[in-house]
Amino acid sequence: MALLTRKRLVLVKNEPAETGTAQAGSSTTITLASVESAVDNYYAGLPISLTGGTGSGQSAIIASYVGSTKVATIQGTFSSPPDNTTTYSIPGGTYGTDSSPVVGTNALLVSNLDVTPLNAETVERTVIRPYLGNYETLVATKSVQVTLTVEAQSTGAAGIANPPAGLDALLRACGFSVSSLSSAHTGTAQAGTSTTITLAAGASAVDNAYRGMRIRFTNNNPSGVESQTAIIASYVGSTKVGTIHGSFATTPTSSSTYSIDAHHVYSPVSQGFESATVYCNVDGIQHIIKGCRGNVVLNFNVGEIPTFEFTLTGLYTAPTDTALGTPTYSQIVPEVVNGSNSGEFRFFNYVAPLMSVSLDMASDVQYRELIGLPTGPFVRYSDRRPTIELSIEAPTIAQKDYFSACLDSSTLGNFTFRHGTVAGKRIILQTSRVDLTEGPTYTDDGGTTMLGLNGALVPSDTGNDELTIAFA
């Protein structure tokens, strides 16, 4: 049973990447800062990004690491070798280090809080004895499990468009990385078709820089009305061409002005996983749970507050008696899912009345405590199998034949959904990689036939592109 929310306090803060300035480097090595770990292979298997100085912009995977010399050997080579001016970042490099969230800035409003404060695996001493009775048990491993629900909301300030800090930390601890467009990109289109727009020459040269973001046209609109908007499915940096989900009602031209507002976009990763420290204070007993990683389920149901449901596993720390403190919570009130607050829904290029959508990342995490692990006990991602479930008003076959789409294993479909209407309060979900995995099902809702659809989100050959979650 979930814990009552009275006299509970949850603080969340991400465990940041290890950062520093290199001492030296070569085409295959980088000597990290003198303060880095003295444990051999502590950073092995983690990605390293060169963030400044010589060689900036390059990334690699650390193959091995010598703690006494701080020398990390990479897989492959650096095209421009680092030196003592090079700064670097190693996501996951501070795993299991208490990030010390504080009441004033890291308190998070949650519901459905359920804490397993000591998840112990035990073994029995099944020795032979001349009498009956229980055997003594010994603790083999110990971890902590936490489930909690967070209201889906953004900061509510136009031009900022990021989730509350605790929600950001939890998403990143659930296998996501974040990229940001800190201010709006505006311009005049160079050209367009019914499904594409060629952005201005000054647009980003990075492929998929605007994927998952919402583009709106800013000229020839009635006052206060965005007459045409779309969600960008893909973007080619060399040509500036953005391909949208669906099609434009009016084809953009070389006189069309547009805006891609400030966004925070979360995309799944397969390496360099981040983690979070979670403090759960239960009636003055504080549990510090370091190295948290886990899974998230997104729920958007008509007539309800949208939510992110998190299931986390972390490292055990002995609890302490600690005063609850006085938290500072976000004052943003979430918007209920309904026809006024939600829109831009599309599934397999069909727009239908939507009742509900649930997106489960289905991430599999395992607590690991093996002999010789450089990092000690840790929580490891072993796989993810994201799925989507939704319920719509059943269309006629002429309108949309989802039965044939389910049988067509060669074609993947798209999905877009936007919740929130005001800049800074929008949440946008999008994918072009839906594979319908089960036959459609019928249900009844007040005399209206509803169609249930289920799909798996399948990555392309480039990987890590199953979906994006954008705050805009």
Describe the 3D structure.
With 472 residues, the protein is mainly beta. The protein has three domains: 18-90; 149-174 and 270-471, no CATH class; 185-210 and 220-260. The chain is built from three helices and 33 strands. The chain has helices spanning 103-106, 165-172, 402-407; strands at 8-15, 18-21, 24-25, 29-31, 47-52, 59-66, 71-74, 87-90, 111-124, 137-151, 176-181, 185-188, 191-192, 196-198, 214-217, 229-236, 241-244, 257-260, 263-268, 275-282, 285-301, 307-315, 320-321, 342-347, 354-360, 363-368, 378-384, 387-393, 413-419, 427-436, 441-445, 448-457, 468-471. The strands form four sheets. It has a 17-stranded antiparallel sheet that branches. Strands 2-8-5-6-7-4-3 form a seven-stranded antiparallel sheet, with no helix packed on it. Strand 5 and strand 6 form a beta hairpin. It is globular. The model is unreliable at 221-225 (pLDDT under 50).
Topology (elements, then pairings):
Blueprint: E1 8-15, E2 18-21, E3 24-25, E4 29-31, E5 47-52, E6 59-66, E7 71-74, E8 87-90, H1 103-106, E9 111-124, E10 137-151, H2 165-172, E11 176-181, E12 185-188, E13 191-192, E14 196-198, E15 214-217, E16 229-236, E17 241-244, E18 257-260, E19 263-268, E20 275-282, E21 285-301, E22 307-315, E23 320-321, E24 342-347, E25 354-360, E26 363-368, E27 378-384, E28 387-393, H3 402-407, E29 413-419, E30 427-436, E31 441-445, E32 448-457, E33 468-471
Antiparallel strand pairs: 1-20, 2-8, 3-4, 4-7, 5-6, 5-8, 6-7, 9-10, 10-22, 11-19, 12-18, 13-14, 14-17, 15-16, 15-18, 16-17, 19-33, 20-21, 21-22, 21-23, 21-25, 24-29, 25-28, 26-27, 28-32, 29-30, 30-32, 30-33, 31-32
